[in-house]
Amino acid sequence: MPVIIKNTPFEPYQSLQQYEKKTLCQNNAIGASNIFIGTMRDFNEGDQIKIMTLEHYPGMTEKQLNNIVDKAHQQWTLIDSLIIHRVGDILPNEPIVLVATWSSHRGDAFDACRFIMENLKSKAPFWKKERLIDEQERWVLSNTDGYHKT
Amino acid sequence: MPVIIKNTPFEPYQSLQQYEKKTLCQNNAIGASNIFIGTMRDFNEGDQIKIMTLEHYPGMTEKQLNNIVDKAHQQWTLIDSLIIHRVGDILPNEPIVLVATWSSHRGDAFDACRFIMENLKSKAPFWKKERLIDEQERWVLSNTDGYHKT
Amino acid sequence: MSIKIRYFASLKDYIGHSDDEIIYEKTLTVTQVWDLATQKKMKPQNTLVAVNMDYVSWDDTVNDHDEVAFFPPVTGG
Amino acid sequence: MSIKIRYFASLKDYIGHSDDEIIYEKTLTVTQVWDLATQKKMKPQNTLVAVNMDYVSWDDTVNDHDEVAFFPPVTGG
Question: How many pairs of residues across B and C have Cβ atoms under 8 Å apart?
Fold first, then answer.
């Protein structure tokens, strides 16, 4: 159930491949995994974004994410889970977050992955600052609810 | 929106990496992707499974999967989607199915991926036959509902 | 009227072969196709039917050159 | 009683610095900590507060050596 905060880019599929090879390789009970990847878009609120800076609260981030993961493992039958989250400067197209859940049954994998993601969005102390193409900077004001269509 | 039926093993993360590199590389509007991977377990109904054979109805499989994908793209705002499904002989730990959705917003990616997966489970003409460790063979009788905990 | 019939998975085992063809004069429902092709063999519970690769119900009618497929509940994914 | 205070993101910009410390004799609520540390600066709407890295409400009390953090709604993921 690792929670990893990274200040350098990561390749999500390679990270997953390596993690499974190292940790889950011989686990034949895994029947389902669900993976969410959040990527930086180059547009937000109608403006083109040049770069994004992700600030966080070291210590509290890990504490909150571990709480969320613990709750997910209590609520659903999971074999394992993984969170990777970027901090620092992020360019368009770069992955910001990866959440993965491994389970015997798909209902658990789907539900838990979404639960972790929604809770991460509302509770983990990360803040995005966008730098526009004209060098203007602005804080992103709030996250939307992922259960409703936007 | 490719739908791929394969009679040889595939590596899901490599397939995704290659697909994104080839097809989605320069699409900076992607903010969210959700991926489901279904893997063969070595146990079912309390018995150890040696090998599984996936029969399908060529032509109808593709037609039904494309219908499902079309419906998903009508119902949610998706940039792209991908389905890969194995047929033939499958060994424990090998991936059976991969469903991926790419969108600007996470709600769409999550909902559409699950919609495709549940519809695939209930409508795509695939049938699993299990060969047990004692060489006994049996057809899997039905799929469970993935929205309920099993 | 010529109708091609296919059986899949456990239903193929049950029928004993994978294909049939029936030639008939009048319009048939799916149920009638089953009865003619299988000589009124008992239909296993939950048997599904597709005409030209689309799901249909047992009361639907079948046209010349249609492909009718019978199979058990699907178990992919 | 010594309390460490931290501000993050837009709230750090608003306050003008990232850290404060207050020494005080009696037990304080989170609201009182804010008022003392910021000299009753107006609290931006939706400001969140954590004590020792757990979310708390503004009426909760603060203990000696606690770390109190103020920040705007989170926008990770």
Answer: 74
Under the phi-then-psi rule, with left for phi > 0, alpha for psi from -120 to 50, and beta for the rest, what region is A29?
alpha
Query: Would you give per-residue pLDDT tens digits along chain B (150 residues)?
Result: 999 999 999 999 999 999 999 998 778 899 999 999 999 998 888 899 999 999 999 999 999 999 999 999 999 999 999 999 999 999 999 999 999 999 999 999 999 999 999 999 999 999 999 999 999 999 999 888 888 654
Subunits next to C (3 or more Cβ pairs <8 Å) are B
CATH node for D2-71: 3.10.20.30
Contact B85 C75 (CB under 8 A): no
Q: Which of B16, B107, B117 sits opposite A149 (nearest CB)?
A: B107
Q: Quote the ipTM score.
A: 0.94
Judging by beta carbons within 10 Å of its beta carbon (0-12, 13-18, 19+), is residue D57 exposed, middle or buried?
exposed
**Contact residues, chain C, for B124 at CB < 8 Å:** 74, 76-77
- Asked if C72 has any chain B CB less than 8 Å from its own CB, the reply is yes
- Do the Cβ atoms of C75 and B125 come closer than 8 Å? no
User: What residues of B are in contact with residue C53 (Cβ under 8 Å)?
Assistant: 57, 59-60, 63-64
A45-80 pLDDT, tens digit per residue, is 889 999 999 999 999 999 999 999 999 999 999 999
Two tokens, residue D30:
């989170």
